């Protein structure tokens, strides 16, 4: 990892050897990649928040007595009345419309594992986004210097 940081600083002479068009293309590409990474980071934050809400809901569900009347969410805005039959069995959405029946403890464990995985991915993406942002910034500085130099050349 330490060599990667040196690589970013070592890239400046390479960028300075590029033409204005090449530097501009590098900056645009880097900016696009940073934007895509930011979108991915936002998606991970959203997914993590949803899993934390689900984990919290499982905890609260486990505290309710059997036979308790409640509203069951079918969508984000549609709820139907229901009765709690067995608080120890839950359906876990594992993606693409597939659900698996698990015990309450397994459901909570699933949520926690997914949250930890997403947080790990988030940390890795932050690192990549930071490097891409520094490349874009370096390219921008060098592009400005090259454009200024071209403007001053008679």
Automatic annotation (TrEMBL):
Coiled coil: none
Signal sequence residues: none
Domain of life of the organism encoding this protein: Eukaryota
GO cellular component terms, A-Z: cytoplasm; prefoldin complex
Molecular function terms, GO-annotated: unfolded protein binding
GO BP terms, alphabetized: protein folding; response to cold; RNA polymerase I assembly; RNA polymerase II core complex assembly; RNA polymerase III assembly
Family to which the UniProt record says this protein belongs: Belongs to the prefoldin subunit alpha family.
Name by which UniProt lists this protein: Putative prefoldin subunit 5
């Amino acid at each position: 990892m330490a060599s990667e940081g040196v690589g970013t600083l070592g890239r400046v002479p390479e960028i300075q050897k590029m033409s204005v068009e090449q530097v501009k293309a590098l900056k645009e590409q880097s900016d696009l990649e940073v934007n895509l990474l930011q979108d991915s980071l936002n998606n991970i934050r959203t997914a993590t928040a949803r899993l934390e809400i689900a984990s919290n809901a499982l905890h609260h569900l486990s505290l309710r007595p059997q036979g308790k009347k409640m509203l069951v969410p079918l969508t984000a805005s549609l709820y139907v009345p229901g009765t709690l039959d067995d608080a120890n069995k839950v359906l876990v959405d594992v993606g693409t419309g597939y659900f698996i029946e698990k015990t309450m403890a397994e459901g909570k464990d699933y949520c926690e594992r997914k949250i930890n995985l997403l947080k790990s991915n988030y940390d890795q993406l932050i690192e990549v986004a930071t490097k891409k942002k520094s490349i874009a910034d370096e390219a921008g500085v060098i592009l400005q210097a090259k454009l200024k130099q071209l403007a001053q050349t008679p």
